[in-house]
Write a structure and sequence with these properties.
129 residues; SH3 type barrels; 2 domains; six-stranded antiparallel β-sheet; five-stranded antiparallel β-sheet
């Protein structure tokens, strides 16, 4: 859970994702401190997502706004969920049935990040590219 307080956002200058600590100043500056390079990077505040501290089956960190596939062993119809804040905790919500599950580490071996709501909005409704 050491990654729980990481955030990510899209850079203003080139639209690439950057990960680190999110800062919003009194002057309405929005940036992420990138630990890898030791610099502040201006980000679009509408794209800032908090890390859940949980990884998927490929050991990839799961962030708010990620679109995940919930792999069901005996069902051919895997479910697509969007990770979001819900009732004070991180949760996964389907768009087809408005079904919500609390995001817990017990699910991690059954979850696979397949995109996010910013880069892959078509995946929200279970439609692949």
């Amino acid at each position: 859970m050491k990654d729980r307080f990481l955030s990510r956002g899209k850079r203003i200058d080139n639209g690439e994702w950057v990960c680190g600590n999110y800062v919003h100043t009194r002057k309405d500056d929005y940036f992420i401190y990138d630990h890898d390079y030791g610099v502040n990077v201006d980000v679009n505040p509408d794209t800032v997502c908090q890390c859940t501290g949980i990884t998927d089956k490929n050991n990839r960190l799961i962030f708010e706004g990620d679109i995940v596939e919930f792999i069901v062993e005996f069902d051919v119809d895997n479910k697509i969920y969007v990770v979001k804040w819900w009732d004070g905790c991180m949760a996964m919500e389907t768009y087809s049935s408005r079904h919500i599950l609390q995001l817990q580490s017990i699910y991690t071996k059954r979850l696979k990040v397949i995109g996010n709501i910013y880069d892959n909005p078509e995946l929200k409704e279970g439609r692949a590219k």
